[in-house]
Amino acid sequence: MKILGVIPARFASTRFPGKPLADLLGKSMVQRVYLQCQKSKRLNHVVVATDHQKIYDHVKGFGGDVCMTSADHPSGTDRCMEALAQQTEKYDFVVNVQGDEPFIDPHQIDLLCQSLDEKTELATLIQEISTLEQLLSAGEAKVVLNSKKEAMYFSRSPIPYVQKSEQSEWLTKTKFYRHMGLYAYRSEILEKITRLPMSPLEKAESLEQLRWIENGYRIKTVETDAEEGLCIDTPEDLERAKAYLQRITH
């Protein structure tokens, strides 16, 4: 089984333009993501998929593999598909590694890859929610599972709803899970889902994975108890990442 790791690296960003090139103590954010991916034992190859010449030249400059993709892609999933189409080798699966997580744990990538088999269409990591803040945050996508550990639905709302209990007590009544944003796609499934029009539930929740579920695709989930790495969305996040990096390297 051959697995391609793709790091979507878009230049434009409402809150932090050019963030893939942001310096993190001597290495750019996209370079740090790339180096973490190279530590994976399951990825056969890693490529950065960008829409900007500066990022393309930068990745080439540090010796990474990179491909130029359209600036019009609505999501990282679409950018992954174009990157896959440009490869000369055939891959069974594609893993979408978020380009704004410079400390992503390669063991988490391998954990997801280990779950892939001939029946897998799509797969992603989840984690049990441990705090009420996470449960109630609209920024956290929650997920409910069927008996096969496949995703039934994702929502920004707390799901399931616990009847006849105060929200403050919900975590003691049942398990809740959050989505961790690392995706694996079977190559032929990736091609199919990128052709689908935006779905009603996707529009409502602003979660692209709902489009796949609405169209009958199965998303396998893999539970992890590892801490999620720092995600950099703003310049303030970058400063926190620098402080974290200084702590762990000194």
Summarize this structure briefly:
Helices cover 32% and strands 22% of the residues. The protein has 250 residues and is of the alpha/beta class. Strands 1, 4, 5, 6, 7, 8, 9, 10 and 11 form a nine-stranded mixed β-sheet that branches.
Describe the protein.
With 250 residues, this protein is an alpha/beta fold. The chain is 32% helix and 22% strand. The chain is built from 10 helices and 11 strands. The chain has helices at 29-38, 53-61, 76-85, 106-114, 132-136, 170-173, 187-193, 200-205, 209-214, 235-249; strands spanning 3-9, 23-24, 27-28, 45-50, 66-68, 93-96, 122-128, 142-145, 151-155, 177-186, 219-223. The strands form 2 sheets. Strands 1, 4, 5, 6, 7, 8, 9, 10 and 11 form a 9-stranded mixed beta sheet that branches. The protein has a two-stranded antiparallel ribbon with strand order 2-3. A hairpin with a 2-residue loop joins strand 2 and strand 3 (27-28). The longest helix has 15 residues, at 235-249. It is globular and about 60 Å long. It starts with a strand and ends with a helix.
